[in-house]
Amino acid sequence: MSAYQNDINAIERLRSAQDGKWDNINPEYVARMRAQNRFRTGLDIARYTAAIMRRDITEYDADPSKYTQSLGCWHGFIGQQKMIAIKKHHGTTKGRYLYLSGWMIAAMRSEFGPLPDQSMHEKTAVPALIEELYTFLRQADARELNHLFRELDTARDKGDQVRARSIQEQIDNFETHIVPIIADIDAGFGNEEATYLLAKKMIEAGACCIQLENQVSDVKQCGHQDGKVTVPHEDFVAKINAVRHAFLELGVDDGVIVARTDSLGAGLTQKLPVSKEPGDLASLYNSFLYTVPIDTSDDINEGDTVIKQDGELRKPLRLANGLYRFRSGTGEDRVVFDCVNALKNGADLLWIETEKPHVGQIASMVNRIREEVPDAKLVYNNSPSFNWTLNFRQQVYDAWEKEGKDVSAYDRDQLMSAEYDDTELAAIADEWTRNFQRDGSREAGIFHHLITLPTYHTAALSTDELAKGYFGDEGMLAYVAGVQRQEIRRSLACVKHQDMAGSNIGDDHKEYFAGEGALKAGGKANTMNQFG
């Protein structure tokens, strides 16, 4: 017997026990409302999606072609439309997640207005967006199920039992729009206690996976900006522990932690960890510092710091702002060090922020990490901060040049130019771009591919196109031809915006509550009927 029918029977028994006082309650209506509200709390969502993510990780370990993907969404509606589109075009949400970008919260969701990605926005904006995203996804479930319930009623009214059974199966096997979310906690917004408190709020809102980076929280920079400052490993591990405690306290035992390192592009550290013996964690961290030898006390200036390395006294270079500099060329070694230590101290997945999308570069670091942690795997940012066209055209150019192929027809520095769009080089570069996620997952241990800011850019592009035409000669045709006509022909659910906002659900609820006396919005005069 289906869960839907079980609910109907359970409510029927409960109604029967009320001595007639609940006779106005229709058990099937209640069962429908329960089906439309499967996830009662954010913790229900976090536990459900954590199990999905763990299963996906296991499947990827067995077969790297089974990688996962997501797009960053800055509003609940954007996340909802993304998942509706995925179900429509691909038939299933399996392997598709949501990504919550700290950059987009800073740029789009702060009460201060648009901000740079430097953790200046309100920390409460992060769990608020998680909750908003899942509110819209739950509403997508309710809307789609509502359509099925209406179709079931129509089939029954017509006496079409075959159709009714088919719809009943769709209800019983309904695939929810609720999917895992990878949520960016930046550098933790303070000390480890602050990180723990914010992580709890994020998990309570529904997050099953939290991404944490090893920058100093109060001077945090976007991964694609200069001036990044990393923290010693002991500090980062304390925050990983804080997030894990939050998951366990709330009963999300499968919660996933993504440890992000910005060391490839970070040349500074805020403080020197205390080393207790040669070769310990602090000693290894300090070994990457730019230092100069001390021969006499004259080499030490007022306020200088002195450390002992390999049996000799050395002075780390401290800048005017009090920060210490790492030796140039140590970024990749520090990335490997960061990643191995994070995985050995409770992180589940890694995030390596690179300066370009190059499978070979990523694989070179992951292979070194896997020498110590064989199942290491990545969440990778397919970042809009990369010039993908130029990067891949230059990669093809460099490969051809290495092979001895004639590249005299191309100017490497100008390969972004449209004059190269129809060339063989551009076609191969596009194919490499198309295959980047497949190649990266197979060769570089990338379990999850995401684009941090795609819907930020698509919103800007589509608005620019509409504004150009609507306020120009096209007038209303710009909207009709460029938007509405496309919505209708592509069967976008949003063309019936009243239904998308819940008007049909509301009408049905009114009927549940008031019967034939319900005042509905969906009658013949509703203009939404024009769209079939």
From TrEMBL:
Catalytic activities: D-threo-isocitrate = glyoxylate + succinate
Q: Would you kindly state one Gene Ontology biological process term found in this protein's UniProt entry?
A: carboxylic acid metabolic process
Where do transmembrane segments lie in this chain? Answer: none
Q: Which residues bind substrate per the record?
A: 101-103, 223-224, 260, 381-385, 452
How is its cofactor bound, per UniProt? Can also use Mn(2+) ion.
Record-linked InterPro entries? ICL/PEPM (IPR039556), Isocitrate_lyase (IPR006254), Pyrv/PenolPyrv_kinase-like_dom (IPR015813), Pyrv_kinase-like_dom_sf (IPR040442)
Q: Which GO terms describe its molecular function?
A: isocitrate lyase activity; metal ion binding
Write the record's keywords in alphabetical order, separated by commas. Lyase, Magnesium, Metal-binding
Q: Which Gene3D superfamilies match?
A: Phosphoenolpyruvate-binding domains
What are the names of the required cofactors?
Answer: Mg(2+)
Catalytic positions are 222
State the Pfam families in the record.
Answer: ICL
User: Which residues are recorded as binding Mg(2+)?
Assistant: 184
Name of the protein in its database record: Isocitrate lyase
In its UniProt entry, the species of origin is given as: Aidingimonas halophila
Question: What lineage does UniProt assign to this protein's organism?
Answer: Bacteria, Pseudomonadati, Pseudomonadota, Gammaproteobacteria, Oceanospirillales
